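Help needed: design a sequence for this.
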């Protein structure tokens, strides 16, 4: 069969089900995974998408027929999957998920032993090559693999709350938007187990893989508006919103101001460095001034890494960094197998509200009042490389870097222009010392990107 090679992304596999990605393709990918990584025991899970169970069954059958034992963790968030691979004695694993993509998509996310990511650099390109060359013959297995069902919810919850002193969580009114994933289910269980004094107003809290309100992405205005309106209406103290697979979390303050992941990274870095003075913290190059400044002020060491969930996790391990944050709202912790988690940041923020007797707007204010940004601007274009080259030529008098796409820095403003790893988009991020300069330079760069000068 012909396979659309575009389903292989930098970090995972994603395609429209069942045309570009289906049970037969999942079986082939699983065989390639087995051939390259030769696992004896793996973790297998899936997210809430309607096609998830059928794809899960196909992958399970492939493992079993190939003599690989399977710990079946069932319906999970992506960060639960990472935790399971890291915590359980296994050689890796696969979860069936397409993250925040629309309902018609599904895909596969892969780990090696100790929850180490499998990216295009660390095995995914080899998997793709084997499949496109139809080189999938596996040695015959003398015996079938054994399936063992595992419920990891309680262990996952213990791990999440271990990052804070859970007794100190104070009464707070919280809006929680699960975007039809499983995070509201997990939060309800945590509140029940620890008898927490949280007054939670839930939004889109029943898992539903049809995603009836559109793509389960908290960055989309239609998702964001509903979430922010509910904070205003209920006079909540703060809000949290997850993407459908739960590995990213987004915050809004008591005034219903959306807190960019960039500023959340700065808030969390400040707190983490109190526990780990002098530690290394990884950030991505899209926006860097707020995070670099606070990390240095707190005695930490900022390290700028190319963006991406698999790249950041690998770089953290390499540098022995304690924390990493991306402006896309992936937050990574050394004690979480260097992987991202969507619930740990919520509990750290809740603990900070109590510890400092403060509000989220006050935690964010040192950054939001001093560092001005555009928010990420996306452009659909077939001329990505040409535009990046044009921008580099126009701004060659600035400090130019190519850590991830093109970054150019001046004394009072900087920008990053990069190609998306998962979508056919060119992404622009810009920061400046004043709001007026942000607006001016944004206008200038948008004109360049759209071919107006």
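Sure. Designed sequence:
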């Amino acid at each position: 069969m012909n396979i659309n090679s575009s389903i292989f992304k930098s970090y995972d596999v994603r395609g429209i089900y069942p045309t570009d990605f289906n049970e037969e393709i999942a079986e082939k990918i699983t065989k390639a995974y087995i051939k390259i990584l030769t696992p004896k025991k793996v973790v297998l899970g899936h997210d809430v998408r309607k096609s998830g169970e059928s794809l899960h069954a196909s992958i399970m059958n492939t493992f079993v027929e190939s003599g690989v034992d399977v710990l079946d963790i069932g319906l999970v968030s992506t960060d639960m999957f990472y935790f399971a691979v890291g915590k359980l004695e296994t050689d890796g694993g696969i979860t069936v998920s397409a993250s925040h993509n629309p309902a018609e998509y599904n895909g596969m996310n892969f780990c090696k032993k100790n929850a180490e990511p499998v990216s295009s650099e660390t095995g995914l390109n080899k998997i793709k090559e084997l499949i496109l060359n139809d080189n999938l013959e596996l040695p015959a297995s003398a015996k079938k693999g054994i399936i063992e069902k595992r419920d990891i919810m309680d262990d996952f919850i213990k791990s999440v709350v271990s990052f804070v002193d859970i007794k100190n969580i104070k009464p707070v009114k919280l809006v929680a938007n699960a975007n039809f994933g499983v995070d509201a289910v997990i939060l309800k269980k945590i509140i029940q187990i620890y008898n927490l004094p949280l007054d939670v107003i839930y939004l889109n809290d029943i898992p539903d893989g049809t995603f009836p309100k559109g793509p389960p992405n908290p960055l989309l205005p239609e998702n964001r508006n509903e979430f922010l309106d509910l904070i205003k209406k209920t006079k909540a103290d703060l809000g949290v919103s997850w993407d459908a697979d739960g590995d990213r979390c987004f915050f809004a303050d008591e005034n219903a101001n959306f807190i960019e992941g960039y500023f959340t990274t700065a808030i969390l870095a400040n707190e983490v460095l109190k526990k780990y003075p002098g530690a290394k913290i990884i950030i991505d190059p899209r926006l860097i001034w707020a995070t670099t400044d606070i990390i240095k002020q707190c005695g930490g060491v900022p390290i700028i890494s190319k963006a991406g969930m698999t790249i950041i996790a690998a770089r953290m391990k390499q540098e022995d960094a304690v924390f990493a944050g991306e402006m896309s709202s992936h937050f990574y912790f050394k004690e979480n197998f260097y992987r991202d988690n969507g619930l740990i940041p919520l509990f750290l923020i809740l603990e900070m509200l109590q510890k400092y007797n403060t509000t989220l707007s006050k935690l964010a204010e040192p950054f939001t009042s001093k560092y001005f940004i555009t928010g990420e601007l996306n452009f659909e274009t077939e001329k990505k490389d040409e535009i990046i080259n044009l921008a580099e030529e126009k701004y060659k008098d600035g400090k130019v870097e190519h850590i991830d796409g093109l970054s150019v820095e001046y004394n009072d403003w900087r920008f990053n222009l990069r190609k998306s790893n998962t979508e056919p988009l060119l992404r622009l991020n810009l920061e400046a010392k004043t709001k007026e300069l942000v607006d001016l330079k944004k206008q200038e760069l948008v004109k360049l990107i759209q071919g107006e000068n």
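The two ends are 46 Å apart (CA to CA).
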